[in-house]
Write a structure and sequence with these properties.
Blueprint: H1 4-10, E1 17-20, E2 24-28, E3 38-42, H2 54-74, E4 79-83, E5 94-99, H3 115-128
Antiparallel strand pairs: 1-2, 2-3, 3-5, 4-5
Helix pairs in contact: 2-3
Length: about 130
């Protein structure tokens, strides 16, 4: 199924990429809860996380963990929150959100981050991705 994420994967649409492998892509959310809010997606088009095979699911979580560790090195926060909701875009995506309080995870409070800051932040996270 085609989605905005499919267009990010193919390069039809730009994104602030923080990490990429043959099977996954991580990029900054354009409507973030907090600065550094990152999405990790599989490159296969699947709407629901539990429709992934067990191996695909485990690999996505392994990739997301590596991104979270890079994010934690880059953005000052109490911890990195993880959420999988799946209602916004019909493509599996893991939210990694730098948080200091539960309110940062509610998706009710959003922050504005300008394009220049997003580019610098994406590069900084990418440099910490191992």
């Amino acid at each position: 199924m085609e989605s905005v994420f499919s267009k990010l994967i193919s390069g039809e649409l730009p994104c602030h990429k923080v990490a990429e492998s043959d099977d996954f892509l991580a990029f900054l959310d354009i409507n973030p809860n907090t600065e550094g809010h990152t999405l990790c997606i599989p490159k296969i088009a699947e709407d629901k996380i539990f429709n992934l095979s067990e191996q695909e699911y485990i690999s996505l979580m392994r990739f997301s963990r590596k991104v979270a560790l890079a994010l934690r090195k880059t953005v000052k926060c109490g911890r990195i929150g993880v959420s999988v909701i799946g209602l916004e875009v019909p493509h599996v995506h893991v939210h990694l959100i730098p948080i200091n309080s539960i309110e940062d995870m509610t998706f009710q409070k959003k922050v504005k981050v300008d394009t220049k800051t997003m580019a610098l932040l994406a590069n900084a996270i990418a440099s910490n991705f191992k």
